[in-house]
Design goal:
mainly alpha, two-stranded antiparallel ribbon, two-stranded antiparallel sheet, 44% helix, EC 2.5.1.60, Terpenoid_cyclase/PrenylTrfase, PGGT1B-like, metal ion binding
Amino acid sequence: MAINGTQIKDVVIKPDAPNSLILDKHADYIAAYGSKKDDYEYTLSEYLRMSGIYWGLTVMDLMGQLDRMNQEEIIDFIKSCQHDCGGISASTGHDPHLLYTLSAVQILTLYDRVKAIDVDKVVDYVGGLQQEDGSFAGDKWGEIDTRFSFCAVATLALLGRLDAVDVGKAVEFVLSCMNFDGGFGCRPGSESHAGQIYCCTGFLSITGQLHQVNADLLGWWLCERQLPSGGLNGRPEKLPDVCYSWWVLAALKIIGRIHWIDKAKLRAFILACQDEETGGFADRPGDMPALLKALWIRDMTGTVPGNQLLKEGFGYCPSQ
């Protein structure tokens, strides 16, 4: 597809694509996920199991189906993943990481069961990952990324313990990752990316520093992610992916520019990504569904009454 002589990477939505939300099949798809623990797909997802549980629970909560999930089994799983250092891993036997520590705290917040884990140890673990420049390592191996800055402050804010880190230095580091186009990258000088932008705007919202963002400049960059199909990409010259329906829309919501996007076209794209046979969402129309993609049901519902994390604000949901 070319516009004004420029080649645009996009997809074509077929006339017979789904155009209404099939909630029952999505609920069945998520409820059945993991019931067959010998499945190849289930085994492959072990490295991010904690976040997968969070994504699934959030969708089920939005659909009013949370009671179909085994709360006690999930809580026991989280407890089994907390290490002596306080951090929480993706699955039993894996190393702890900020990403999965946040997912676990988000799940426990959803269930109002935060005291099921050793909160003080979680706080110590998160605080111990802050570096001298204010950034956060994701784990003991030292990778630095603005995603981890978001995970750290979101975790501590949900626990009511933001005082455990140097918020001022953390803000300075995130602002140093702001680019000329208004967006944010994973580190200073890195390319702007919609996922990083969500993390950084969420971080700045939680820390009360959102006024540091040029909302018009950033809003324009985010809206340029919308393609003729209605779908959104994460950065220029990429195909649309339904996951960016969340990263882009949530960032626009945080900075007060969500009305700039063509919601009708985006809605049509998201609906076309549904699998009418099995339930679930694919990255693009016609592809295979994945649990992560099912989370974008949120974009069909807007602000949903009753969901505690959304009540807390778009900046708390989710980490990946």
